[in-house]
Amino acid sequence: MPEAITPVFRRAVIALSGGSIDARIVRLALEVTRHNHAEVIAVHVVELDWTQPLDADAAERSEEAQRVLDAAEGIAESLHGKMESVLVQARDVGAAIVDEAAAREADLLILGLPYRTRFGGDFAIGRAVPYALKNAPCAVWVVREPMGEESR
Amino acid sequence: MTAPNSPLRGRKLGDRRVVVDRPHSAYFRYAGAGVMIAKAAASAPTTAFGRRLARVRAFVFGKPLSTAQDIEERLSKKLALPIFSSDAISSSAYATDEILRVLVLAGLAWMTWSIVVAAAIALMLTIVAFSYRQVCRGYPAGGGAYVVARENLGPNFGLIAAAALMVDYVMTVAVSSASALANLATAFEAIAPYKVELGALIIILVTAANLRGLRESGNIFAIPTYLFVGMALLTICVGLVNTASGAAHHLNAPPFAEQPGVQAFTMLLLLKAFAGGSVALTGVEAIANGVPAFKPPEAKNAANTLIIMALILGTIFIGLTFVGLQYGVMATTAQGPTVLGQVGSAVFGGNFLFILLEVSAALILFLACNTSFNAFPRLAAILAQDDCMPRQFAFRGDRLAFSWGIVVLAAVAIVMLYAFNASVDALIPLYSVGVFICFTLSQAGMVIHWRKERSSGWAWRSVVNGFGAILTGVVFVVVASEKFFNGAWMVLIFIPSLIAMMMFVRHQYASSARQLTMRPGAAVPQPHRHNRVVIPISGVNRAVVQALNVARSITTDIRAVYVSDDPKHSDAIRELWTQAVPDVPLVLVESPYRALIAPVVAYLDVLDRSWPNDQEDPITFVLIPEYVARSWWERMLYNQAAKQLRAALLGRPHTVVINVPYRREDSRPQAGPDQQPAGTLVAADNGKPH
User: Fold this and answer.
1) Residue B63 near chain A (CB below 8 Å)
2) B7 CB near a chain A CB, below 8 Å?
3) By CA distance, what is B22's nearest residue in A?
4) pLDDT exceeding 70 applies to what percent of chain B?
5) Is A97 contained in some domain?
6) Is B21 in the A-facing interface, judged by CB distances under 8 Å?
């Protein structure tokens, strides 16, 4: 079996959803990029439906959207790590995350995945993670949060 | 709000996204609904001078720490011990001398009683330490004797304890720096004429170290304290081994030895010796004052550190007294060697270890003042929280230190140094008087505490504390009466003065709070008083127009006032004004005595008097147009009259003074006269800002 080598990244984009998994992926990203002082960029996408123009004044005024990134910045600061944060409005979360990662030439994209089930008990993976896995030009890490007690 | 960014194309056809600006993120962070936390950048200075000053401050005192870093600044037991105990431990270096100086008055034969007196003091130390250990656990917010006395004996007894402690902390700083210099002056005579200046310099250096924060000052001061403890314990161990092996022989009388007296050996003499040696207890209370400075669990760590300190202090004190007795050391005058020096010389024989012992003793005596720099500001902060001191004392500076307390302590100690010409002999009678008042009050408070609490063992605990209260009370009486005519009378004036000051401050805050307090549940009514605006003008210019626009947003009852010492000029101004602002009356005040401010104030008085008596007084808004200068030297050229007027109107009833600043940048978008908004004037004649 070949010896395990810690991959080295230059720039990591982390996709934040505002859930409890965010803190975990911020810590993970800072941990894996700490050794070579790689950049960490946190992206939170506010999805707009077609009733609003794409450049509507939605996310900037949304305290909730700002808070998602601010909370991540706070965690990064407490770990003495540096992190850039980007707030994006788009029609589709997955596409916006992948496009942002590609535009910034990231070599790692980390996404958090809450453990949710559909009606009937099937695991719900959502749309953003499969899109990123299929389309992102860089490495993609998906961090799924642990199952709740009731799911086990 | 910023303009939205244009959409960016995605990798696939039709994918678009917009990156949204986050203007707040440089300065604030949202922490919850409607709650923002300011980042360091929000507190950063905005001017070039301010930034330079901040860089100098960061170099001297360190970079500012956030409140969240408080927990990182907390002290481990290892660091807290030297910070809070240097005063107490250092007193073991001279406490035995104080006992011997009294006992020698009865003749050499009675010197053996020194060990009995030392044992009695150690017993008192045990009781006091035991009591303060309970204080740490019972009152984890700190405050020591002050809080115990306040809670159990009443607020005024708390103030007595606080005042006594504060006086003693100031004296500790003054005495320790003066004695450190006195020691140095014996070695380097050249510094003797500059003792006061050097003493002040020492205090300033310790102040700067303490302003750098708790942890950093702890790191700076830890080594000398541990060095002294190590060397003193080594000296005692070697002395004990020599005694056991029969190698300890009585020494010859040292130079400047006190001559044996012929006084009768009475209970009073024994009490005096006991009181003299009790200086060993000074500083014991400091840990109980600073419990919140410890790492969690704060109370437990503080209580354990207190016990370690008492053990070290007791061991060194008893050990030195015992070993000194075996070597037959003598008390000396101020010029002679100390007991520690004599024992060290006998044990080590003047080699490197002896020099190290002497150096470490000198260092710890000097650093004894650091305990005060940690205890005084904390006590002052607690007093400020209780409204007994100005509230600034409760604010923490850039490095989370109670900067006001530190600076005020240093300033008062320097004043004391100057007042007493840095003379140890003159300062020492004022020292260690207050601390016994606070010991007595805290012990008495604990008796009541136990009786109220009735927890397990309350009966014997209250007996122990009661005994301690009587013992420390007796020591206070003996110490105060012994030193009274040598200067202790001043302490007995300072303490009541401080109490009076704190009571005054408390009364002031209580009275202002009564005036400011709103009735709970009361709805705020709509304003119903008439508003009127007076704009003192210096001419007809853009700054005045800006003030006029602000005035129009307040009320329609507006009048401008122009004070002039030149009637021709007044006519020109009236003409300009009538043409530009016909709807606002202008009052021209001729001032043949050339005063500018007083006529405006007099005009306001006249306005007030002319208001109908049967109506409620109106609120008069005085809008002062100000031209905002861009640099510090420009500021000297403008707004001098505005400043004077503001000062003259300060505190005037029913009057609100508003500065309306006019910046040069405000006129930039309006490049030419054609583009002026309606009501805006192009700079007119005499448009010079005052």
Assistant:
1) no
2) yes
3) A60
4) 94
5) yes
6) yes
> Whose CA is closest to B173, among B375, B357, B360?
B375
What is the model's pTM?
0.76
CA distance B32 to chain A (A): 7
- Of B77, B57, B110, the closest CA to residue B331 belongs to B110
Name, of B90-94, B127-131, B486-490, the range with top average pLDDT.
B127-131
Tell me the residue range of the domain where B667 lies: 531-675
**Domain around A95:** 11-118
Substitution target in B12, B30, B63, B69 with the highest count of A β-carbons within 10 Å is B30
- C-alpha span between B518 and B516 (Å, rounded): 6
Q: Is residue A2 part of a domain?
A: no
Q: Which of B2, B16, B68 faces A54 most closely, judged by CB atoms?
A: B16
Asked if B572 and B477 sit in the same domain, the reply is no
For B243-302, write each residue's pLDDT tens digit: 888 877 777 777 776 777 767 777 888 888 888 888 888 888 888 888 888 888 888 999
Q: Is residue B15 part of a domain?
A: no
Let me know whether B540 and B505 are in one domain: no
Please report whether residue B37 resides in a domain: no
Q: What ipTM was reported for this prediction?
A: 0.90
Residues B325, B464, single domain; the answer is: yes
Q: Which of A61, A70, A88 sits opposite B30 (nearest CB)?
A: A70
In a domain, B525, yes or no: no
SS3 state at A98? helix
Q: Closest to B20 (Cβ–Cβ): which among A60, A71, A98?
A: A60
Burial of A6 (0-12, 13-18, 19+ CB in 10 A): exposed
Do residue B125 and residue B171 come from a single domain? yes
Contacts of B10 in chain A (CB under 8 A): 95-96, 98-99
Q: Given CB atoms, is A105 within the 8 Å cutoff of chain B?
A: no
Determine the distance in angstroms separating the CA of B29 from the nearest CA of chain A, rounded to an integer: 5
Tokens linked to B386 = 């209780």
B234 has pLDDT over 90? yes
Is residue B491 in some structural domain? yes
B466 with B569, same domain: the answer is no
In this predicted model, what pLDDT tens digit does every residue of B530-587 receive, in sequence order? 999 999 998 899 999 999 999 999 999 999 999 988 878 888 899 999 999 999 999 9
Residue A142, in any domain of the structure: no
B493 touches B158 (CB < 8 A): no
Q: Which of B105, B98, B101 is nearest to B263 (CA)?
A: B105
A-interface mutation test, from B20, B65, B67, most A Cβ less than 10 A away: B20
Q: Looking at the structure, tell me whether residues B115 and B248 fall in a common domain.
A: yes
CA-closest candidate to residue B172, choices B27, B445, B379: B379
Picking from B652, B599, B659, the residue whose alpha carbon sits closest to that of residue B624 is B659
